[in-house]
Amino acid sequence: MNKPIDSQRRALLMGSAAALAAGALPRYAFAAEPVRVGLILPMSGPFASTGKQIETAIRIYQQKYGDMAGGRKVEILLKDDGGVAPDVTKRLAQELVTKDHVQILAGFGLTPLALATAPIATQAKTPMIVMGAATSIIPQRSPYIVRTGFTLPQVTAPLADWAVKNKRLNIKSVVTLVSDYGPGMDAEKVFVKHFTAGGGKILDSLRAPLQNPDFAPFIQRIKDTRPDAMFVFVPSGAGTAVMKQFVERGLDAAGVKLICTGDVLDDDLMPSIGQAALGVHSSHHYSAAHPSADNTAYVAEFAKQIKSRPNFHSVGGYDGMHLIYEALKKTAGDSDGDKLLAAMKGMKWTSVRGPVSIDAETRDIVQNVYIRKAEMRDGAVYNIEFETIENFKDPGV
Ligand code: PHB
After folding, report:
1. Which atom of ligand 1 is nearest to the CA of 237?
2. Ligand 1 lining (C-beta closer than 6 Å)
3. Contact by Cβ (8 Å): 299, 315
4. pLDDT at res. 32
5. How does 157-188 read in b/e, with b if 16+ C-beta sit within 10 Å?
6. Cα 335 to ligand 1 centroid, rounded to whole Å
7. What is the pLDDT of residues 193-237, one digit of tens each?
8. What does DSSP assign to residue 220?
9. Where are the beta strands (DSSP E) in 95-172?
10. pTM, whole model, 2 decimals?
């Protein structure tokens, strides 16, 4: 009875000795090794809320679904890149790949940080899951990039189309105001293209600096220009300052409406923006008020863990984990970069934001975009979705 086991064990030991002598680990050791995910996020600095949101979502995902996928333990190695220096993010990615031997890179809160890291993913043939950065071009920079967040053209085009047609709001002229970098350029171009195609007029296009912006002079200039509405994109974290100036400078009273992407009315900031947001129309792929049982449970878990609402960046993290787990299940735990990429392409699932899929050709997320209005719900202001543009792909710029 014992003999076959002994001989099996001996063969295994001899095999492993031979493999070690040849400088490689035996096969069965690979199966036991965890899959390492190098997660690079802004955990400090001006965009730390993005890091906190994505990190919390990933933790909640692992608490809910466990830390095993495809028979492998999934280990997260979190690095703080501070959110503002592309060379820091790139160096961290390089170290994660060469020293920590991660098989997957993930995170990336801002566009310049994702763009700087793309060549590392290509060289190392390592899947790079972009959970935050939202400039259209990003997945084109490496065949190993898959995006689980959103793109600015994806959420901006539906808003422009909706606003120019809406008889009740009656917006015929707009001044655009965006942060002066990748996603801002995307938002401005796409808004102008769609709003003018629908017969609307753009009176001016303003760009505020990304870092330490003072919105006061921009908002004053918009007030002086007197458009029917201003369209705004600023990245997650900067919305409160815009809203404060909008109220202080009395644009509402001057008859200038505000329309924006959901980045401005970020759920993480909504409690501090408060009533100033009431009545503002926006578009986005996620609202903490999204009506589904899955989302209600997700929101409750966030409240329990960090006493805050989940925001749109958090779902990029949560769904990024889902993508990694499901891909590992499909490859039966094989963490080869090309095999994981193949498993990720075309994947479909129901997210807390609604139905999503990964476009097999572009590796970008396809999802519903919702038009929302900020309203009171249970004593607080929420972005209430009232119109859905289904399964919408990034239209590009
Ligand atoms: C980006 O840098 O791509 C970015 C960051 C925050 C946002 C949107 C886009 O809210």
Report:
1. 10
2. 110-111, 132-135, 183, 235-236, 263
3. no
4. 65
5. bbbbbbbbeeeeeebebbbbbbbebbbbbbbb
6. 29
7. 999 999 999 999 999 999 989 999 999 999 999 999 999 999 999
8. H
9. 104-107, 128-130, 145-147
10. 0.92
